[in-house]
Design brief:
Strand content of chain B: 25-35%
Number of domains of chain B: 1
Largest sheet of chain A: 9 strands, mixed
Shape of chain A: globular
Order of helices and strands of chain B: HEHEEEEHEEEHEEEEEHE
Number of strands of chain A: 12
Largest sheet of chain B: 11 strands, mixed
CATH superfamily of chain B: Glutaconate Coenzyme A-transferase
Oligomer: heterodimer
Number of domains of chain A: 1
CATH architecture of chain A: 3-Layer(aba) Sandwich
Helix content of chain A: 10-25%
Number of helices of chain B: 5
Shape of chain B: globular
Helix content of chain B: 10-25%
Number of helices of chain A: 6
Radius of gyration of chain A: 18 Å
Radius of gyration of chain B: 18 Å
Chain lengths: ~230, ~230
C-alpha cells in the first residue's frame, strides 16, 4: 500500500548512492519527469539507470546524466536524434552501456517482479549480444539464458492513483510502468490525479496497490511544455 | 500464403521503367500483407507502408510501445503526448484499439502472435540473416530497440531497403559484414530494384524494376534463382 506524499522531493527521499533505478517511459510518453528532476536535486550518485532510452534533449534523464550521477545505463535504444548528452558521456568513457533488446529488457524486469531466477529466449541468438551467455537448444531451437533486472527503486508515471496506490495509465504512456512497478524494492509513482479509495473501477486497475510504495501528484504541465515534444 | 505463392511464380521484369520510388516500394509491400493480419511496421521507411494498406483489408497495426489498432499520424488538435508510435511520432487510435504494457507487447512479438513485421536493414544475407542495428564501427553508438525480438519472433520478417549503398555496394550479400540482428529470419526482401524471396533453393527474384535479371546477376555476388533461367 502506498503513502501519498506531498512533493516529488519527499517521494525520492532516501534513494541511496549506487542504487539501481528503473525509470519508466518510452520516448517522452510516461516519463516521470517530476521524479527525475527531484532525483537530480536529491543528489544520489553512482546510479545504474534502467530505462528504454538514455535521455532526450537536456531535461529528465539527460539532466541526470549531465549531472554526472549515472555510472551505467541499461537500455535498448540510447542513440536518438536528441541523445546528445548520453552520446557525449559514452564517447568520453564516462558512462557504461549495457545494450539490451527491448523485449529482453521488458521480460528481464518482469522476471524480477515475478520471482523467476532466469529464463531462456531465442532473441539475440547468433548475434554479438549473445556473447558470454549460456546457450541451450530446446526442441531443436537455440535459446540464450537471460537474468532478471531488479531495481532498488522504480520511478514511474501513471494517469491516476487512488489513495491506496492502485494505478491506471493512459494510452501508450503505460509502456514500462506496470512491469517496473513489480520489480523494485521501492516503487514511486507520479500521477496526474489522485482520487479517493473506491473511485477507480477495480476492473480497470492495471497496477494494484500491493506494488506501489509512494505516490505524488505531478505538477501541472502544459502539453509540449517539456520543450522537446 | 503470399510468400509460398510467390515461390512458384516466374520472375517478372519491369525493365522498361526506372526503379521504384520509396512510395511505390511501400505500396508494393502493402500488396503482400495478408488481410486481417497483425503487423508491426518498423521505424523509418516501413512506417510509410501504412499509407498504402487497403482499409477494407482489416489489417491491425501493432506498435511495440504498447498498442494494437494504431491509426495514422496525428496532426494539430489530435496530437496527444501520451499517444506515440515506436518512432516517437504522435499517432491516432482506431476503433477497436487496445493498450497494454511493454512485457505484454513483447510477448505478442516473442510468442509468435504477430503475423508480419517489416524492418529496414543495412544488409541481408542470401540465407536471410539480417543486420540492421549496428554499423560495428568504433565510436558508433548501437541501438537495438525491438529489432532482435521482431526478427526472431514475428511470423514473417519482411525487409524494406535500398538494394545498393550510396556508393553502389550491394546490401543483399553472401554473408553480412555488419553485426547480425537475427539468423536466417528474413523471408522476403523488397527493394527499389527488385523483390526477392528466400527459399530452400536460394534467393528467388520475383520482380525487377528498372533493371533486368541479367544485370541484377552482374551486380549481386549471390546466386539468384528465377523462373526465367
Amino acid at each position: 500500500m502506498a503513502s501519498i506524499v506531498a512533493t516529488a522531493d519527499e517521494a525520492v527521499a532516501g534513494i541511496a548512492h549506487g542504487s539501481t533505478v528503473l525509470v519508466g517511459g518510452f520516448g517522452l510518453a510516461g516519463v516521470p519527469m517530476d521524479l527525475i528532476d527531484a532525483l537530480v536535486r536529491q543528489g544520489a550518485t553512482g546510479l545504474t539507470l534502467v530505462s528504454n532510452n538514455a535521455g532526450n534533449g537536456t531535461a529528465g534523464l539527460a539532466a541526470l546524466l549531465d549531472a554526472g550521477r549515472v555510472r551505467k545505463v541499461v537500455c535498448s535504444f540510447p542513440r536518438q536524434s536528441d541523445s546528445q548528452v548520453f552520446d557525449r558521456l559514452y564517447r568520453a568513457g564516462k558512462v557504461e552501456l549495457e545494450l539490451v533488446p527491448q523485449g529482453n529488457l521488458a521480460e528481464r524486469i518482469r522476471a524480477a517482479g515475478a520471482g523467476i531466477g532466469a529464463f531462456y529466449t531465442p532473441t539475440g541468438v547468433g548475434t554479438p549480444l549473445a556473447e558470454g551467455k549460456e546457450t541451450r537448444v530446446i526442441d531443436g531451437r537455440a535459446y540464450l539464458l537471460e537474468h532478471p533486472i531488479k531495481g532498488d527503486v522504480a520511478l514511474i508515471s501513471a494517469y491516476k492513483s487512488d489513495g491506496l496506490g492502485n494505478l491506471v495509465y493512459r494510452k501508450t504512456a503505460r509502456n514500462f510502468g506496470p512491469v517496473m512497478a513489480t520489480a523494485a524494492t521501492t516503487v514511486i509513482a507520479q500521477v496526474t490525479e489522485i482520487v479517493p479509495v473506491g473511485a477507480l473501477d477495480p476492473e480497470t486497475v492495471i497496477t494494484p496497490s500491493i506494488y506501489v510504495d509512494r505516490v505524488v501528484q505531478a505538477a501541472a504541465r502544459e502539453p509540449g511544455a517539456c520543450g522537446v515534444c | 500464403m503470399t510468400a509460398a505463392a510467390a515461390c512458384d511464380a516466374e520472375t517478372v521484369e519491369h525493365a522498361r521503367r526506372g526503379p521504384l520510388s520509396t512510395d511505390e516500394l511501400a505500396a508494393r509491400i502493402a500488396l503482400d500483407i495478408p488481410p486481417r493480419s497483425y503487423v508491426n511496421l518498423g521505424i523509418g521507411q516501413p512506417t510509410r507502408i501504412a499509407d498504402y494498406l487497403d482499409p477494407a483489408a482489416g489489417i491491425i497495426l501493432h506498435t511495440e510501445n504498447g498498442m494494437l489498432g494504431m491509426g495514422p499520424a496525428a496532426h494539430g488538435d489530435e496530437i496527444d503526448d501520451d499517444l506515440i508510435n515506436a518512432g516517437k511520432v504522435p499517432v491516432t487510435e482506431l476503433p477497436g484499439a487496445a493498450y497494454f504494457h511493454h512485457a505484454d507487447s513483447f510477448a505478442m512479438i516473442r510468442g509468435g502472435h504477430l503475423d508480419v513485421c517489416v524492418l529496414g536493414a543495412f544488409q541481408v544475407s542470401a540465407r536471410g540473416d539480417l543486420a540492421n542495428w549496428h554499423t560495428g564501427r568504433p565510436g558508433d553508438i548501437p541501438a537495438v530497440g525491438g529489432a532482435m525480438d521482431l526478427a526472431t519472433g514475428a511470423g514473417q520478417v519482411l525487409v524494406m531497403m535500398s538494394l545498393f549503398t550510396r556508393s553502389g555496394e550491394p546490401k543483399l550479400v553472401p554473408d553480412c559484414t555488419y553485426p547480425l540482428t537475427g539468423v536466417a529470419c528474413v523471408s522476403r526482401v523488397f527493394t527499389h530494384h527488385a523483390v526477392f524471396t528466400m527459399t530452400d533453393n536460394g534467393v528467388l527474384v520475383n520482380e525487377t524494376f528498372g533493371i533486368t535479371l541479367g544485370e541484377l546477376r552482374e551486380r549481386l555476388d549471390i546466386p539468384l534463382v528465377s523462373g526465367l533461367t
